[in-house]
């Protein structure tokens, strides 16, 4: 398979995971299966281990209740859950950790997703992220209220920050509009050639929340490669 197609497939999978739960859409099964196989092969040593036993959520047996700032410790990466209560594990594998919670304002997701990437140049990496994130404008389910993209190396390796505010287009019979706020950081893996990762924090509800940047920045900062 063409490497560019596979890279785009994994980035699209990472991006669409923000929107699947919002609009109950599905990533095409074939693309997902191929992407996950490549991701698991490249990232098979990324095993994440909980720092202590988690309590089972009685309402959702598959979920695990997380203490604030809970640590998932991997072979070379440390991932902390958001520093607030009410979060549960929604999905976890060698290549991703997805957490979520709901409150009176709406629902939140915090996630870390690894993907294979074969791009070396910083500008090429930026252009790829820009191209993939801009594809949401072609999705008839959403209108873009705000979209920002910024290249950064404040971590010491190439990353791209994205911030988007979307409004779901509803049917005439629907009451209210669903707002989605999405903050994410896409980076080339500083330790492994051929790998990248995305750290994302999103909210969906009826109204825009003003402190999304504070919440997202706190979570993103909690994902680190400590030995760098």
What's the structural blueprint in terms of helices and strands?
Blueprint lengths: L2 H21 L5 H14 L5 E3 L4 E2 L7 E2 L5 E4 L3 E3 L7 E6 L2 E7 L3 E11 L5 H13 L7 E11 L6 E10 L10 E10 L6 E11 L6 H10 L1 E2 L4
Antiparallel strand pairs: 1-4, 2-3, 4-5, 5-13, 6-7, 7-8, 8-12, 9-10, 10-11, 11-12
Helix pairs in contact: 1-2, 1-3
What do these coordinates show?
- With 228 residues, the chain is α+β, with helices and mostly antiparallel strands.
- It has one domain (3-224): Mog1/PsbP, alpha/beta/alpha sandwich (Protein Transport Mog1p, Chain A).
- The chain contains 4 helices and 13 strands.
- The longest helix has 21 residues, at 3-23.
- It is globular.
Summarize the structure.
With 228 residues, the chain is α+β, with helices and mostly antiparallel strands. Helix content is 25%, strand content 36%.
User: How many structural domains are formed by the residues?
Assistant: 1
Put simply, the count of helices is 4
Q: What characteristic shape results from the CA principal axes?
A: globular
Average pLDDT rating? 76
Into which percentage range does the β-strand content fall?
35-45%
- Report the biggest beta sheet as strand number plus sense, adding barrel if it closes: 7 strands, antiparallel
Class derived from helix and strand content: alpha+beta
CATH homology-level superfamily: Mog1/PsbP, alpha/beta/alpha sandwich
CATH class: Alpha Beta
Question: Strand arrangement, largest sheet?
Answer: 6-7-8-12-11-10-9
User: Would you count the extended β strands for me?
Assistant: 13
What is the CA–CA distance across the termini? 33 Å
CATH architecture: 3-Layer(aba) Sandwich
Helix content: 25-40%
Q: What Rg, in angstroms, do the CA atoms define?
A: 17 Å
Q: Write down the CATH topology.
A: Protein Transport Mog1p, Chain A
What's the order of the H and E elements? HHEEEEEEEEHEEEEHE
**Low-confidence residue ranges:** 1-10, 19-47, 54-62
